[in-house]
Amino acid sequence: MGKHQLGEFEEVVLLTVAILQGDAYGIAIIEEMETRLDRKVSIGALQTVLRRLEKKGYLKSEFGEATAIRGGKRKRFFALTQHGRMILQETKEQRLSLWNAIPDLSLKES
After folding, report:
1. What's the mean pLDDT when you consider all of the chain?
2. Of 9, 11, 28, 107, which sits 20 to 30 A from 40 (CA to CA)?
């Protein structure tokens, strides 16, 4: 295994940010994850992971423009860094290596 490891939720968050390409902010990330995974996500859990991934250098963020709809509050948009893309690629390769190591018969029902 590589020297970098992601937790399952961290991996899903990074993948979702990559899917949203430029439109990845809190609520959009949650909606995308809930739609694709049929899984509830709390804003608190997401914010904790986003901060952790940014601190690790996998994500970067910047504020968008203030809007009247949001009462003048700006959205924080997230994007993958080069390091984040690298860790996702490494994680994908690890997963594929494990899947490819499964003998064909082991996944068939008895």
Report:
1. 88
2. 107
